[in-house]
Amino acid sequence: MAAWHKSTYSANASACVEVATGVGIRDSKAPATHVEVGAAAWTAFLSAVKVVR
Predict the structure, then answer these.
(1) pTM across the whole model
(2) Which domain of life does this protein belong to (predicted)?
């Protein structure tokens, strides 16, 4: 079973994107479905977000 985590920016909102290490990302409103994301793609995404932020 994966340990899904919401962003700390989400507070207690129920409409969030969640991530699970080694699994991928999912919409908290539709937890039965997720998109697989590899480690390299996730690292590249986080690097891009940090630059924009």
Answers:
(1) 0.62
(2) Bacteria
Angle at 12 (CA atoms; ends 10, 16), nearest 5 degrees: 45
Close Cβ partners of 14 (under 8 Å, ≥ 6 residues apart): 28, 29
43, containing H or E segment: helix 39-52
Q: Could you report the per-residue pLDDT of 4-49, keeping only the tens digit for each?
A: 888 777 766 677 888 888 888 888 888 888 999 888 988 898 898 8
Contacts of 34 (CB under 8 A, 6+ apart): 20, 23, 24, 25, 26
